[in-house]
Design a protein that fits this description.
Two copies of one chain form a homodimer. Chain A has about 290 residues and is an alpha/beta fold. Chain A has one domain: 3-Layer(aba) Sandwich (Rossmann fold), CATH 3.40.50.880. Helix content of chain A is about 25%, strand content about 25%. Chain A has helices at about 30-40, 55-65, 85-95, 105-115, 115-130, 135-140, 180, 185-195, 280-285; strands at about 15-20, 45-50, 70-75, 100, 130-135, 145-150, 160-165, 175, 200-205, 205-210, 215-220, 225-230, 235, 250-260, 260-265, 270. In chain A, the strands form three sheets. Chain A has a nine-stranded mixed beta sheet with strand order 3-2-4-5-1-10-11-15-16, with helices on both faces. A five-stranded mixed beta sheet of chain A has the order 8-9-12-14-13. The interface between A and B is large, with 51 and 51 residues.
Chain lengths: ~290, ~290
């Protein structure tokens, strides 16, 4: 699967992993920002509820996005690989300003959409400037290398995380979701240890990373993103550890980023939140 | 509480945090190494079961250490602060070559022993060369700053970890135990963020760090130690985050160390396991 490049003259759309369980009523800051980014009252948003087993996931997001002022919202419930060839739905997808993949099971997404015109169109449209967000399973699926499933716990173990090809919007990151809530540091470290070129994004619930065309990730939401940067790893025992054995890894860099903080996926630099509240003004001096 | 220095001509004993649930039958590698370090068949070992609420914890360790060939083993069940002035037990403690603190509740240890002749004697004897190990709550208690309790989960949160003064054998580390098993990265990061001078030791079960007089920690056991080195932290929001809010931390270094690996608490360098098995010989070249 080749990674799409931005076409000449156009910049790629945002790629937006969300850690799951994002606020939908009350203060739905993440979904609101997504709608605004896509054009607000002019925005046409396509929802892909394929990951979910619940029949109303698509229509529920239709209502949420409409309540947030999106111009047009349409759920496209691709349930089979055959569905992924439906011209009427592909036409809707073609015209969307924003595409949103719901939560559920990321293997349902990859087995249903992978290799079909739907996957190809999402990649092409993102390269052309359309914004693509995914929550929970939808977030895991966005990148080239996706965590299919794995064992939980803080320490990485051999043969306890399984990667699968994802949608392929970027290969710079590997995403894990419900991160704080489910203790997934170990499986994300194990996924990165196979080949320490990508950056790990441990996404907490109700927290999103808005990755811009300049490869800068901005954090939004109520919790945090744990950034795992393995580019300075000096050693791992991943090639020799036996099944279920703890894996030795030396030289990981880790940042916990909250709303307002950002991370440059090119230079791998983290930036602290700007001091916006009066009570926090003094923090800025420490950066 | 002042930190004891080695007396002239003598080197301090090992400080040995164990992550809890160490193997006691079958292949009790950690306890066996402790007995050997203390002198094997010549070793006099004092067990302090104060942290535990179970009546047989002390006698159980007496049996385990005897089975491992220790010369003399004696449980000293200090249950009250008054007990901590008993001359006969203090005399036994004075003569021990190794002291072992069992698991249970670290606040029971600190509230019972803290500020008594028992705490003072353990510090003095460790400075004179006696080895001191603690498992689980006993491990937490060893250092100057101890995690008393805290919320679990991967992301650090404000006001969700409580530190208390510990035994004070070293202030170089803050220990957390049952690390992988209970998802404690967040609370250890939060504890370190208050003042990023110490190194965090996230101790998995059945895993020990043998910290020598040269401040080098060697890993033993079946799982891993997660080393959290905050000395390069550029920013934390710990001073301004509201209660239960995620804390932003930029610039943490992290190593997952398995048996045979080591960490220099002076220079903060990690070293990979030496290649001992034939099948692993090639790993050494990559270090």
């Amino acid at each position: 699967m080749s990674l799409p490049e931005s076409r000449s003259g156009s910049s790629r759309g945002f790629i937006i992993p969300v850690g799951g369980a994002e606020e939908k009523v009350g203060d739905p800051a993440i979904l609101k920002r997504f709608v605004e980014l896509c054009g607000g009252s002019d925005a046409r948003i396509a929802v892909i509820p394929t990951a979910s087993q619940l029949p109303d996931t698509g229509t529920r997001y239709e209502e949420v996005f409409k309540d947030l002022g999106a111009g047009r919202v349409r759920s496209l419930p691709f349930e089979s690989r055959e569905d992924c060839h439906r011209e009427d739905w592909l036409h809707k997808l073609q015209r969307a300003d924003g595409i949103f993949l719901t939560g559920g099971n990321q293997l349902r997404l990859s087995t249903t959409i992978g290799g079909t015109p739907v996957a190809k169109m999402i990649r092409t449209r993102n390269a052309e400037g359309v914004h693509v967000a995914g929550t929970s399973a939808g977030a895991a699926f966005l990148s080239e290398h996706m965590i299919a499933f794995g064992q939980e716990g803080a320490t990485p173990r051999a043969d306890r995380v399984t990667l699968a090809p994802g949608l392929g919007l970027t290969n710079r990151v590997i995403v894990d979701q419900h991160f704080r809530q489910r203790g997934r540091l170990g499986r994300l470290l194990a996924a990165l240890a196979y080949n320490p070129f990508a950056v790990g994004l441990g996404m907490d619930e109700d927290t999103a990373g808005f990755i811009g065309p300049d490869a800068r990730l901005d954090v939004y939401g109520s919790d945090a993103i744990t950034i795992i940067d393995p580019s300075h790893v000096q050693y791992t025992s991943m090639d020799s550890a036996h099944e279920d054995e703890a894996v030795c890894i030396i030289g990981v860099r880790l940042h916990i980023l909250t709303e307002g903080a950002s991370f440059d996926l090119h230079t791998r630099e983290a930036f602290a939140p700007a001091a916006v509240e009066i009570g926090r003004a003094s923090c800025r001096e420490r950066v």
